[in-house]
Amino acid sequence: MKLSTYINFRGNCAEAFRYYEKHLGAKIGMVMTHQQLPHPTGIGSDWKDKVLHARISIGDAEVSAADIPNAEPMRSAYLTLNVDSDQEAERIYAALSDGGQVLMPMDETFFASRFGQVRDQFGINWMILHERPMPPRQ
């Protein structure tokens, strides 16, 4: 069994994926627009270039997504990036908070040398952290 994540955007999925590709080192696997369907769906002409289905690899995880009219922004779930250094955490936090909303400032915590939460400019919630090594369980 494999768990994966599917995100709905309000018409800016392709833009978000390009942003993640540039700032997170993600790799876009595929993007299909409504206009590429072999049979028309009756969607308005203003949505013909919007994403019907797309997939992106971020690190070793895959995320799928689509543009959905009137999609509700995600509020109770976060995409979590566990990175290898404080510098990488700070860089990614800055990129994802640019044009977005800081939910928790980047700081040191008991479990991470760097931890922060943002809602990016596309409405997606992110947690970015560089975990501290945990002592072995006894």
Question: Which CATH class of the largest domain?
Answer: Alpha Beta
The average pLDDT score comes to 92
Helix content: 10-25%
Strand content: 35-45%
Number of strands: 8
Strand order of the largest sheet: 1-4-3-2
CATH topology value of the largest domain: Signal recognition particle alu RNA binding heterodimer, srp9/1
- Radius of gyration over all CA atoms, rounded: 17 Å
The count of helical stretches stands at 2
Task: Give a quick rundown of the structure.
With 138 residues, the protein is α/β, with parallel strands linked by helices.
Give the helices and strands, then pairings.
Blueprint lengths: L4 E5 L3 H12 L2 E7 L17 E8 L2 E7 L11 E4 L3 H12 L3 E7 L4 E8 L5 E7 L7
Parallel strand pairs: 1-4, 5-8
Antiparallel strand pairs: 2-3, 3-4, 6-7, 7-8
Descriptive report:
This protein has 138 residues and is an alpha/beta fold. The chain has 2 domains: 1-70, 2-Layer Sandwich (Signal recognition particle alu RNA binding heterodimer, srp9/1); 73-133, Signal recognition particle alu RNA binding heterodimer, srp9/1 (2-Layer Sandwich). Helix content is 17%, strand content 38%. The protein has 2 helices and 8 strands, in the order E-H-E-E-E-E-H-E-E-E. It has helices spanning 13-24, 86-97; strands at 5-9, 27-33, 51-58, 61-67, 79-82, 101-107, 112-119, 125-131. The longest helix is centred in the N-terminal third of the chain and has 12 residues, at 13-24. The radius of gyration is 17 Å and the shape is elongated.
